[in-house]
Write a structure and sequence with these properties.
Layout: H1 13-22, H2 27-46, E1 50-58, E2 61-78, E3 84-93, E4 98-106, H3 128-134, H4 139-142, E5 148-154, H5 157-160, H6 166-177
Antiparallel strand pairs: 1-2, 2-3, 3-4, 4-5
Length: 186
Protein backbone atom coordinates (compact mmCIF):
# COMPACT_ATOMS: atom_id res chain seq x y z
CA UNK A 1 0.00 0.00 0.00
CA UNK A 2 1.37 3.43 -0.86
CA UNK A 3 2.42 5.78 1.91
CA UNK A 4 0.60 9.08 2.24
CA UNK A 5 2.06 12.03 4.08
CA UNK A 6 -0.24 14.29 6.03
CA UNK A 7 1.13 17.59 7.23
CA UNK A 8 -0.20 18.54 10.64
CA UNK A 9 0.06 22.01 12.12
CA UNK A 10 1.50 22.41 15.60
CA UNK A 11 -1.96 23.49 16.82
CA UNK A 12 -3.52 20.23 15.55
CA UNK A 13 -0.79 17.90 16.84
CA UNK A 14 -2.60 17.20 20.17
CA UNK A 15 -5.68 16.14 18.19
CA UNK A 16 -3.68 13.57 16.23
CA UNK A 17 -1.94 12.35 19.37
CA UNK A 18 -5.27 11.82 21.12
CA UNK A 19 -6.66 10.00 18.06
CA UNK A 20 -3.65 7.72 18.10
CA UNK A 21 -4.19 6.96 21.80
CA UNK A 22 -7.88 6.18 21.27
CA UNK A 23 -7.18 3.96 18.26
CA UNK A 24 -4.71 1.80 20.18
CA UNK A 25 -1.69 3.28 18.45
CA UNK A 26 -3.01 2.82 14.91
CA UNK A 27 -3.48 6.38 13.68
CA UNK A 28 -4.04 5.20 10.10
CA UNK A 29 -7.17 3.27 11.06
CA UNK A 30 -8.52 6.30 12.96
CA UNK A 31 -7.92 8.57 9.95
CA UNK A 32 -9.55 6.08 7.57
CA UNK A 33 -12.62 5.71 9.83
CA UNK A 34 -12.94 9.48 10.08
CA UNK A 35 -12.60 9.88 6.31
CA UNK A 36 -15.24 7.19 5.66
CA UNK A 37 -17.68 8.97 7.97
CA UNK A 38 -16.85 12.35 6.41
CA UNK A 39 -17.47 11.02 2.89
CA UNK A 40 -20.73 9.36 3.94
CA UNK A 41 -22.05 12.61 5.43
CA UNK A 42 -20.93 14.87 2.59
CA UNK A 43 -22.26 12.58 -0.15
CA UNK A 44 -25.63 12.41 1.62
CA UNK A 45 -25.73 16.20 1.90
CA UNK A 46 -24.97 16.56 -1.82
CA UNK A 47 -27.98 14.35 -2.53
CA UNK A 48 -30.20 16.56 -0.36
CA UNK A 49 -30.28 14.31 2.71
CA UNK A 50 -29.69 15.22 6.33
CA UNK A 51 -28.58 13.08 9.21
CA UNK A 52 -31.77 12.17 11.07
CA UNK A 53 -31.78 10.90 14.65
CA UNK A 54 -35.02 9.59 16.12
CA UNK A 55 -35.93 8.03 19.44
CA UNK A 56 -37.57 4.62 19.70
CA UNK A 57 -38.55 2.78 22.83
CA UNK A 58 -39.58 -0.64 23.89
CA UNK A 59 -39.30 -2.62 27.07
CA UNK A 60 -38.84 0.66 28.95
CA UNK A 61 -35.59 1.61 27.21
CA UNK A 62 -35.13 4.62 24.95
CA UNK A 63 -32.77 4.14 22.05
CA UNK A 64 -31.67 6.46 19.28
CA UNK A 65 -31.62 5.44 15.63
CA UNK A 66 -29.73 7.43 13.03
CA UNK A 67 -30.00 7.45 9.25
CA UNK A 68 -29.74 9.78 6.28
CA UNK A 69 -33.01 11.05 4.96
CA UNK A 70 -35.27 13.91 4.08
CA UNK A 71 -38.49 14.58 5.96
CA UNK A 72 -41.44 14.60 3.61
CA UNK A 73 -44.29 15.21 6.05
CA UNK A 74 -44.84 15.94 9.72
CA UNK A 75 -48.39 15.29 10.88
CA UNK A 76 -50.38 15.69 14.08
CA UNK A 77 -53.42 13.65 14.94
CA UNK A 78 -55.34 12.43 17.94
CA UNK A 79 -54.45 8.97 19.20
CA UNK A 80 -56.92 6.19 18.41
CA UNK A 81 -58.35 6.40 21.95
CA UNK A 82 -58.63 10.21 21.75
CA UNK A 83 -56.61 10.69 24.93
CA UNK A 84 -53.41 11.92 23.35
CA UNK A 85 -51.58 13.22 20.33
CA UNK A 86 -49.53 11.36 17.75
CA UNK A 87 -46.73 13.09 15.91
CA UNK A 88 -45.98 11.26 12.67
CA UNK A 89 -43.03 11.99 10.42
CA UNK A 90 -42.21 10.26 7.14
CA UNK A 91 -38.71 10.41 5.74
CA UNK A 92 -37.43 9.41 2.34
CA UNK A 93 -34.20 7.64 3.17
CA UNK A 94 -30.89 7.68 1.33
CA UNK A 95 -31.61 4.01 0.56
CA UNK A 96 -34.78 5.10 -1.30
CA UNK A 97 -37.10 3.67 1.35
CA UNK A 98 -39.66 5.33 3.62
CA UNK A 99 -39.21 5.61 7.37
CA UNK A 100 -42.31 6.27 9.49
CA UNK A 101 -41.56 7.63 12.94
CA UNK A 102 -44.45 7.84 15.41
CA UNK A 103 -44.54 9.49 18.78
CA UNK A 104 -47.67 9.15 20.90
CA UNK A 105 -48.09 11.31 23.99
CA UNK A 106 -50.95 11.62 26.45
CA UNK A 107 -52.52 15.07 26.45
CA UNK A 108 -52.71 17.06 29.63
CA UNK A 109 -56.04 18.22 30.91
CA UNK A 110 -55.96 21.77 32.14
CA UNK A 111 -57.63 22.56 35.43
CA UNK A 112 -56.81 26.23 35.72
CA UNK A 113 -59.86 28.35 36.57
CA UNK A 114 -61.67 29.48 33.42
CA UNK A 115 -62.43 26.64 30.96
CA UNK A 116 -62.22 29.17 28.13
CA UNK A 117 -58.59 29.98 29.04
CA UNK A 118 -56.53 30.29 25.86
CA UNK A 119 -59.46 29.12 23.77
CA UNK A 120 -60.13 26.04 25.91
CA UNK A 121 -56.84 24.29 25.16
CA UNK A 122 -57.92 20.92 26.47
CA UNK A 123 -61.26 20.79 24.69
CA UNK A 124 -62.74 20.98 21.24
CA UNK A 125 -61.46 17.58 20.11
CA UNK A 126 -57.84 18.65 20.32
CA UNK A 127 -55.60 18.38 23.33
CA UNK A 128 -53.09 20.91 24.53
CA UNK A 129 -50.19 19.26 22.70
CA UNK A 130 -51.94 19.44 19.34
CA UNK A 131 -52.87 23.07 19.91
CA UNK A 132 -49.36 24.10 20.96
CA UNK A 133 -47.89 22.35 17.93
CA UNK A 134 -50.50 23.86 15.62
CA UNK A 135 -49.28 27.24 16.84
CA UNK A 136 -45.75 26.30 15.77
CA UNK A 137 -44.36 25.12 19.11
CA UNK A 138 -41.73 22.43 18.47
CA UNK A 139 -42.56 19.96 21.23
CA UNK A 140 -39.90 17.47 20.16
CA UNK A 141 -37.19 19.97 20.95
CA UNK A 142 -38.21 20.45 24.57
CA UNK A 143 -39.63 17.15 25.74
CA UNK A 144 -37.49 14.43 24.23
CA UNK A 145 -38.21 11.38 26.39
CA UNK A 146 -41.98 11.47 27.01
CA UNK A 147 -44.29 9.23 25.04
CA UNK A 148 -44.17 6.04 23.03
CA UNK A 149 -41.89 6.09 20.00
CA UNK A 150 -41.70 3.72 17.06
CA UNK A 151 -39.88 3.55 13.74
CA UNK A 152 -40.97 1.39 10.83
CA UNK A 153 -39.26 1.27 7.46
CA UNK A 154 -41.11 0.45 4.25
CA UNK A 155 -39.72 -0.29 0.80
CA UNK A 156 -42.60 1.59 -0.88
CA UNK A 157 -45.29 4.05 0.09
CA UNK A 158 -47.87 1.45 -0.85
CA UNK A 159 -46.49 -0.82 1.91
CA UNK A 160 -46.94 2.02 4.38
CA UNK A 161 -50.53 2.82 3.35
CA UNK A 162 -52.34 0.29 5.62
CA UNK A 163 -50.53 1.70 8.66
CA UNK A 164 -51.61 5.35 8.29
CA UNK A 165 -54.77 7.36 7.63
CA UNK A 166 -55.84 8.12 4.06
CA UNK A 167 -55.29 11.86 4.62
CA UNK A 168 -51.78 11.30 5.88
CA UNK A 169 -50.99 8.96 3.00
CA UNK A 170 -52.22 11.58 0.51
CA UNK A 171 -50.04 14.24 2.13
CA UNK A 172 -46.98 12.00 1.87
CA UNK A 173 -47.74 11.11 -1.75
CA UNK A 174 -48.12 14.77 -2.62
CA UNK A 175 -44.88 15.71 -0.87
CA UNK A 176 -43.01 12.93 -2.66
CA UNK A 177 -44.22 14.02 -6.08
CA UNK A 178 -43.60 17.74 -5.69
CA UNK A 179 -40.26 19.52 -5.81
CA UNK A 180 -38.44 20.02 -2.52
CA UNK A 181 -38.00 23.68 -3.42
CA UNK A 182 -40.15 25.50 -5.92
CA UNK A 183 -38.37 28.44 -7.52
CA UNK A 184 -40.73 31.36 -8.02
CA UNK A 185 -40.25 34.08 -10.58
CA UNK A 186 -41.91 36.86 -8.63
Amino acid sequence: MPNKTIYVSDDDAPLFERAQELSGGNLSSAVVRALRRFIEIEEAKQQGFNEITVTVNGDGAHRRKRFFGQRLVRWLQATADGKGTEILSVYRTAGNRYALHKRAMLDWKLSWGDPEYLGNLAGGGKGILQKFMAWGFDWDRYITEAGNFSLRVFDTLEEMKPHVSDEFYQAVSQAREGPEIEDLDI
